[in-house]
Backbone:
């Protein structure tokens, strides 16, 4: 009974294989070998132990075999081995077999936060194509062969004087001499060697003409000098050589004091430019109701000798007192340091009398319009002159202080004090004539110019 059950199971298992064999044309499928039905020997019965009876064993149900999941499926034949029938070479022996391999080096950046790579600055740009080779396609000449290739170069001989101290060469005894030209050869023009060219004449040292003297008028190299001189003169007239004029009356006043009421004036006028001027000066004084006691006029030529001073020379003529006198005069006038206006003059009369005069004043500006002017004047003489009551030495001195208000720069009324004194021999001559040698007075007047 057991043998029949085993046969049924084997037949069921081999049924799919047989089906594949019959349903795959052209394919020869190997059939599994069927094992021979075993014939188990009858189990011996053990005496004294009751077992299940044969009827009971037949009555016990048998478990059915599991169904084949691939039953009825077509299974593809396995692919042929491409290396079937080939002799395969044995794999190469591992060169590191049996070696002790060192552990790989630890990554030094393991665990670090790596910065992102910088963006490509040319990303998205259109790059110009490389310039074409200008010599592309040209046939280049072969380099010239070295003319000394294959030659044996002789080593230069060693300098026999190397390391010796050489004496300087002797001076040429004919240096700076003018050598005479050789006389013309008597065979000149014959069929001999070519005649030497004549030596150029070299002038002796020191005889060469000097270079032209440089000057500031470069335009005269291109244009006539006379035309450029007229152009410069016109430029100077238009840019600094104009002619000007001024009439300036520094003192025009009336004086009251000590029983003597009188008047006084002191002024000048000039015409010219910044360098050359013609100047006329005048000053004098007198009593009201009478003739002037003193009056003079000067005609002068003035020339600038610096930014602040002019030198003046000319003639002075005294109209009063009588007799009138004429003087040659020379002096200076200008602006001294600290803004002092100064005048100094020296006079020589036709009789040979020598005298001099010094004047100075200073404008102290109190406001933009109110100005205080101290003033001093000294008159000196080298000899006595009884006719004009002038004594030798310091003849007279005048000190004044005037305060003016400038209604305009050109016009300013003023008031002030004036003290005049004769000294020395001049004082004695004044007393002899019945005059007071010292006078203090209140003055008032006007200062103007145009």
Residues:
């Amino acid at each position: 009974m057991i043998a029949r059950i085993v046969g049924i199971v084997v037949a069921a298992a081999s049924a799919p294989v047989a089906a594949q064999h019959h349903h795959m044309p052209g394919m020869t499928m190997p059939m599994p070998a069927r094992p021979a039905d075993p014939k188990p020997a009858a189990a011996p019965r053990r005496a004294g132990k009751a077992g299940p009876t044969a009827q009971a064993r037949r009555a016990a149900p048998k478990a059915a075999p599991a169904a084949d999941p691939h039953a009825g499926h077509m299974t593809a034949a396995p692919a042929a081995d491409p290396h079937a029938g080939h002799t395969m070479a044995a794999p190469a022996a591992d060169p590191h077999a049996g070696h002790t391999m060192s552990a790989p080096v630890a990554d030094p950046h393991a665990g670090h936060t790596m910065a992102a790579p910088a963006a490509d600055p040319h990303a998205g740009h259109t790059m110009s194509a490389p310039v074409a080779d200008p010599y592309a396609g040209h046939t280049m000449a072969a380099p010239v062969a070295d003319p000394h290739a294959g030659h044996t170069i002789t080593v230069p001989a060693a300098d026999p004087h190397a390391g010796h101290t050489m004496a300087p060469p002797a001076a040429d005894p004919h240096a700076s001499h003018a050598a005479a030209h050789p006389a013309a050869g008597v065979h000149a023009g014959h069929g001999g060697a070519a005649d030497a060219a004549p030596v150029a004449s070299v002038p002796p040292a020191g005889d060469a003409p000097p270079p032209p003297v440089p000057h500031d008028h470069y335009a005269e190299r291109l244009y006539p000098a006379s035309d450029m001189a007229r152009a410069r003169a016109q430029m100077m007239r238009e840019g600094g050589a104009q002619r000007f004029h001024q009439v300036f009356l520094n003192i025009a006043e009336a004086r009251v004091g000590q029983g003597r009421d009188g008047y006084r004036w002191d002024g000048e006028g000039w015409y010219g430019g910044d360098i050359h001027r013609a100047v006329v000066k005048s000053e004098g004084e007198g009593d009201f109701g009478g003739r002037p006691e003193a009056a003079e006029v000067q005609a002068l030529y003035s020339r600038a000798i610096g930014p602040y001073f002019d030198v003046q020379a000319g003639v002075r003529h005294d109209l009063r007192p009588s007799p009138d006198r004429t003087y040659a005069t020379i002096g200076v006038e200008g602006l001294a340091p600290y803004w002092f206006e100064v005048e100094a003059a020296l006079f020589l009369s036709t009789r040979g009398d020598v005298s001099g005069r010094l004047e100075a004043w200073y404008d102290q500006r109190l406001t933009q319009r109110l100005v205080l002017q101290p003033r001093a004047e000294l008159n000196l003489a080298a000899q006595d002159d009884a006719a004009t009551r002038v004594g030798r030495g310091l003849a007279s001195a005048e000190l004044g202080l005037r305060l003016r208000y400038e209604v305009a720069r050109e016009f300013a009324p003023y008031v002030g004090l004036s003290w005049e004194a004769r000294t020395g021999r001049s004082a004695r001559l004044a007393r002899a004539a019945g005059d007071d040698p010292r006078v203090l007075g209140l003055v008032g007047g006007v200062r103007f110019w145009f």
